[in-house]
């Protein structure tokens, strides 16, 4: 009898728990609307919304890049995740395939709570865990901007998530574990510039989505904020004091990098980071970029770390100096001179603009040679890095063994860190992530 009562109690508790979860996970649909006329929004609000969209890089994830590309904001961008491919939504005001029938209330609920207009829980590849921090005004402005874009009729491909991850109701379990809802609250111990930067970085710009490692459930690891992570085959480096570069990412360097795509002492923006300065942050008010730079200079403890910058710069310039008038004996140095030194040679006292100093670059100081290999294989187009400066792809010119030799040479001559391991194997792995690049291509 006692056993039956015990089991009945467990079953009852399970039933109540299940009902409680359903109550938490289920959300009503919000009635659709007739798409609002573009003229119903003021030009000032639409412009403010454009800035919010640029600071959130909305077009980057909501514009298809494979299959020949697609219209801006029409979705169907393939996001590769450890759980399967996810295809982004059409956020143009098309009534059938986009958000034309979404009210501002529905739009705000999606941004703040990760719930679609029909009541379904959104997959957290959409970073509502950051967008929840946005103010109602910014969301209202963003809504105005999106509703005044050209409507595009385009249905995204079905997501490729396995059972049970494809059940939207169960996405609420992820929220229970990892989602904290709430608009950003200013920190009274910091000034307005710091708080503006924190709001942008932690909210609409969702910097942690790329620069924070994730756990097995795909959530950002608690206690590891801005520690760096792997994104699309590249390493998004740490943005905090764990960043290994010998010279500090101070506020000026951060601003130059975020605004122009190149920082004098750290190099150029490439890979998934390249569109951030070139396509987006170069189009927003300078004061907002300054605010983000100000915030991250605090996060990486720049004021303290910068005390050693002068010595680190002097050492780096000495390490990178190459006397081209004397014959080179080291075969790896010969390879470097033939492939790289013509562009990456610098002399004291500081690196030349457009000539990234590898001794100061994240690519050589990270735990893995990933970013170095990606830069070698892909190169940089005129639209990446510094405007008009091109680095050719060495995909066809250098073998995996050649890249391994270059990586070993640069690591031992340009850093004070232990050598990387399995370099040729890792070169082959990096090559496998890059589409074949035609001979004589500059990218």
UniProtKB/TrEMBL annotation:
InterPro entries the record matches: Cyt_c-like_dom, Cyt_c-like_dom_sf, Cytochrome_c-type_DH, Membr-bd_ADH_cyt_c
Protein name: Cytochrome c
Pfam annotation, one family: Cytochrom_C
Location(s) in or outside the cell: Cell membrane
Highest taxon listed in the record's lineage: Bacteria
Organism: Acetobacter thailandicus
Keyword terms, alphabetized: Cell membrane, Heme, Iron, Membrane, Metal-binding, Repeat, Signal
Domain Cytochrome c span(s) in chain numbering: 44-150, 192-300, 327-414
Keyword Secreted carried by entry: no
């Amino acid at each position: 009898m006692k056993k039956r009562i015990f089991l009945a109690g467990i079953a009852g508790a399970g039933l109540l728990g299940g009902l409680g979860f359903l109550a938490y996970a289920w959300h009503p649909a919000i009635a659709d609307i007739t798409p609002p006329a573009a003229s119903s929004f003021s030009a000032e609000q639409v412009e403010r919304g454009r800035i919010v969209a640029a600071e959130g890089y909305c077009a980057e994830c909501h514009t298809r890049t494979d299959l020949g590309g697609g219209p801006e904001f029409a979705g169907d961008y393939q996001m590769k995740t450890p759980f399967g491919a996810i295809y982004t939504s059409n956020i143009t005001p098309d009534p059938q395939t986009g958000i034309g029938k979404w009210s501002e209330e529905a739009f705000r609920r999606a941004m703040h709570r990760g719930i679609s207009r029909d009541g379904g829980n959104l997959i957290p590849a959409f970073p509502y865990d950051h967008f929840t921090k946005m103010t109602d005004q910014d969301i209202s402005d963003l809504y105005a901007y999106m509703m005044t874009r050209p409507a595009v009729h385009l249905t995204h491909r079905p997501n490729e998530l396995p059972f049970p991850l494809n059940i939207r109701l169960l996405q609420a379990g992820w929220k229970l574990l990892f989602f904290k809802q709430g608009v950003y609250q200013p920190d009274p111990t910091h000034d307005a510039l710091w708080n503006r930067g924190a709001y942008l970085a932690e909210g609409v710009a969702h910097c942690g989505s790329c620069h924070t490692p994730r756990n097995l459930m795909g959530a950002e690891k608690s206690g590891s904020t801005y520690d760096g992570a792997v994104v699309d085959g590249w390493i998004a480096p740490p943005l905090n004091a764990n960043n290994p570069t010998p010279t500090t990412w101070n506020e000026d360097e951060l601003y130059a990098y975020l605004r122009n795509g190149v920082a004098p002492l750290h190099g150029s923006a490439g890979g998934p980071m390249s569109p951030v300065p070139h396509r987006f942050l170069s189009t927003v008010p300078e004061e907002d970029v300054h605010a983000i730079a100000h915030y991250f200079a605090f996060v990486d403890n720049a004021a303290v770390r910068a005390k050693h910058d002068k010595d680190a710069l002097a050492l780096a310039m000495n390490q990178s100096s190459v006397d081209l008038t004397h014959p080179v004996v080291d075969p790896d140095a010969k390879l470097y001179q033939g492939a790289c030194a013509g562009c990456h040679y610098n002399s004291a006292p500081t690196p030349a603009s457009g000539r990234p100093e590898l001794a100061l670059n994240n690519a050589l100081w990270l735990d893995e040679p990933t970013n170095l290999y990606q830069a070698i294989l892909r190169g940089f187009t005129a639209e990446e890095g510094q405007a008009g400066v091109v680095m050719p792809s060495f995909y066809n010119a250098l073998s995996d063994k050649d890249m391994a030799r270059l990586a070993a040479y640069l690591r031992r001559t340009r850093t004070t860190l232990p050598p990387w391991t399995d370099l040729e194997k890792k070169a082959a792995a990096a090559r496998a992530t890059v589409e074949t690049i035609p001979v004589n291509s500059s990218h």
